[in-house]
Design a protein that fits this description.
Layout lengths: L1 E2 L2 E2 L2 E6 L3 H11 L8 E5 L9 H8 L4 E2 L12 E3 L5 E4 L5 E4 L11 H12 L3 E5 L8 H9 L3 E5 L8 H9 L4 E3 L1 H12 L1
Parallel strand pairs: 3-4, 3-9, 4-6, 5-6, 9-10, 10-11
Antiparallel strand pairs: 1-2, 7-8
Length: 192
Amino acid sequence: MEINGKKYKAVVIGGSAGSFSVVSKILSKMSPDFPLPVIVCMHRLKHVRSGLVEGLNLKSKIKVVEPCDKDKIEGNKVYLAPSNYHLFIEFDNTFSLSTESVHNHSRPAIDYTFSSAAYTYRDKVLGIILTGANKDGANGLKDIHDKNGTTIVQDPASCDIDTMTKAALNLFEPDYILTPEKIAEYLNQLAS
């Protein structure tokens, strides 16, 4: 899919504290025929394995699933990083799951998902960082930026907790700083 002359293969979204409601809002406003895979990495409680996918599916117009190791990445699906696993995107367009050490106090770590997306999709990935209480995701989003992917940071003024978005803004200047509503609008341009 193309927007402003740029072709995309995937969208990656990361968030922590307060991000469930933001992701829900974005997914509720997205076109049901959104053509790209949307890969979401949110910090979650490791001992709570269910409820998040079900909650997102209540709002989303696109099917939300938790991928298994080696699952093929397909368009028109939302993939949510499973609880207590790091989620990586491989060069053969599959996922890999890992239980290696926590990163920035988190597993899944947004940095790992974003960095692997940057190296796999290079300039054909759109990375979005949302509200959150630590700096996880900032370095990964910078990796996307450094590979000429498109980067969006949620407007810190619209965040429940702006630590995550400000950490990204301290590293580089993103392509866009948008409210959740504007993020959904931008994504829908990809579907039209």
